[in-house]
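Note to self: the last two entries modelled the partners one at a time, which told us nothing about the interface. This time every component goes in together.
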Amino acid sequence: MADVRRAIPWGPLCLVALIALLPLGVHSRYYQSIAVIIGLHTIATVGLSLLMGYAGQVSLGHAAFYGLGAYVSAIASTQLGLNPWLALPTAAVITGGVAAGIGLPIFRLRGHFLAMATLGWGIIAYIVFNELREVTGGPSGLTGIPNLRLLGVPLDTDVRYYYLVWAFALGVIFLSRNIVDSRVGRALRAIHGSESAAAALGVHTAHYKVAVFALSAVFASLAGSLYAHYLLFVNPPPFSFKFSIELLVMAMIGGLAHIWGALFGAALITILGESLRATIPLLMGHASGEYEIIAFGLILMATMIALPEGLWPWLTATADRLNRWGKAENPGRVPASVGDNAFAAPVASAREGTQAGRSISSLRGQGRHLEPPDPILEVERLSKAFAGLQALSHVSFVVHPREILAIIGPNGAGKTTLFNVIAGALPPSGGTVRFLGQPIQHLVSSRIATNGLVRTFQNVRLFANMTVRENVMVGLHHRTRAGMAAAALRLPWERTEERAIRSEAGRLLVMTGLGELGDLAAANLPFGQQRVVEVTRALAADPTILLLDEPGAGLSAGERERLRDLVRRIRASGVTVLLVEHDMDLVMDLADRIVVLNYGEKIAEGTPAEIQNNPEVVAAYLGGDVLEAPGSRR
Amino acid sequence: MTSAQQVLQFLVTGITNGSIYALIALGFVVIYSVTSVINFAQGEFAMLGALLAVWLIAVGLPQGLALVAAVVGVGLFSAVLYQVGLRPARDASPLTLIIITIGAALAIRGVALVIWGTDPYQMASFTTGSPLQVGGAVIRLQSLWVLGTTLVLQPLLHLFFTRTMLGRSLRACAVNRLAARLMGIRTDRMALLAFGLSGGVGALGGVIIAPIIFATYDMGLMLTLKGFVAAVMGGMVNYPAAVAGGFLLGILESLGAGFISSGYKDAVAFIALFIILLSKPRWLVRAEQETEEGP
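The predicted structure of the combined assembly is written out below.
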């Protein structure tokens, strides 16, 4: 019953019907034109929503892409005499190319600096629209842009154009929803959740950020081209910084990570802007001016302070609550068993564990290195200096296949720095790291992960915005291949692959004892279980060698016991384990060999028994008994 | 006019404009170094300062008093902005905070439009007298005021931040907010103070250029952006370097406008911004790492 209800998307269908019937009830040309503009804004906002809401990247310069689409379309269809239908894709390709070109360097930046760089791009483009007079017509703009024609009929009335624009808008929404609900969409959300963790699982973060930026630019360009062939005239003012901000407000109101919300935001802000433009001058008595910016500014502030998730998600959540309350249904759907059952894998699955990540054959990468070379990992004279601090100096050791090697040392000994350098999160100051015989110290962390070296983080970095299962599914990312186009078009093989990803993630979750928790938000799990999710996710990436950074920190005694069991099973499945850990009981019990760091230097290496009796190690731990040494950092 | 004279004249113009960028940049640095927020309303403070001072003079206040009142008033306004706009969301992501300040900037500009309309306003120069002639270049007396203010203010700020307890407390917040709190520094108060100070410095920038340029309700955005570029040139957390960045930007712009095309004058700042950001100086990498790890 519930399945049938979910299979037919009544909400969207009603909306489509409403959009289709709207012109029958609206005869004012003014309102019709507003409906067209809302459609154009929706197209651009959906792109921005993908970029900001899903990938978590910001653009304060999207008006420039809208403008670029409009200008290229205008120039191509007038000066170059191109058919308007060819002008549209021409503009889209050029704009996408420009976006990729500037995105490549820009997305090396983060946070405010990214915001400012995109803003700078928007301003430069605006200046160029104004100054490149020979091409753009300067401030007076370009006229004589031809209408689009469909089957010989010119789309020259508001109603005709309305249907064209909304066909595009719904198409863009449809494609975007498909992308969001796919391997690509998960990768984008993972980047938003934690870029470093996504990269550590083999998601090529730089690639995806630029790709989604280019896609959002293409959407903006499409909207801009449609704008040009609607007004039949372009000049610079509509593409100023102010319009970038309007698009931003629309996306924000719509709740960034909601594709339908983009439509809502575009409609609300466009209508609001129009009505303010009409009414404020009457109230104020001034003749002209962009008074509506006061309202935009205040709305933007209020939304960010009170509803940072956006107005639309809040509305839908409220409607949901009312609905459920009306049905007197139990609001909580959390399984009752979300207790302390971390690592509660049944013993029977230990055998199953010996096949960790190796049973579903449609996924790439299984058993790539069942016979890895020895040594599997060689660290040679590795150094890392931060300003004024030598965190690692000339550390060398090797890791043999299928061993558990523990790295120990007092706080600040450089253990996590060592992990960061090996896994590519930090560039080394000197030395080499060879993995499977190949040097990897110059590779980015996503490349190292796809090669089979996967790590977890000391301070668990789950994608808090995703469910437990989705977290694990991101781990399977680099073993699967559906790209943006396949996802947008829902090609049959893409769906098959998606099902394989889902079932493999489910299998891994069962293996690590999290089988029932797959649909819970990762952020809501107790800390111990979050650790297990992170390990499961890393296993999904099919590691040849797994780097565990203090997996025991913050766990209860029972959880630690189960962790020990899990690490043994991981090793038994053929995975080499490199472990940083403070809990000496755990280390002495698990490790085949131990490397001891102190002040960034290796001071000892050997079997647990050798290390326990090494006087230098004992001295490093402040003269205390090694077995009584600090248990856990927190 | 010989080309040497031309260059000299461009330098004079550049340094005058650069002083304003420097003051805005100082405002950016004060807020950023204490709260890690990039305040998009920074240029609006200059706009408010200028228009408020012009208005106060028009209603009959003596010029000196009007200037002080405008600077203090905008400083208080900026503190209020922090209290109502940013403090409630202080744990949000940097992106959210930046968008809140964008919202504030829009609202301020809109209110200024309602109050003052789209007309440009000009203020009388601080001192009357004929412009100086130096090596063929013309220097307006007000330019000297502008330059002097910047050159005096920067060391004063520097002294405040290095030699007074309050200034050191502010810097402590910049280095490590949690540790500062544990030392008994009230970090919220410090953020409030930083906004107030920054608003005052921004307004000062506005009032001293009001006699040179025509002040309009919409001049804030460009000042924000240029001031930000200057602050980036100076490494975001360094006061003398931010001032140097302001001068450098002003000179580059003035030379670019003179020798290339005045239409592209505003693009100079952003091309400079791109070059700096993309060369990724070490301070930037550090600042980004801080934003990723977050609070």
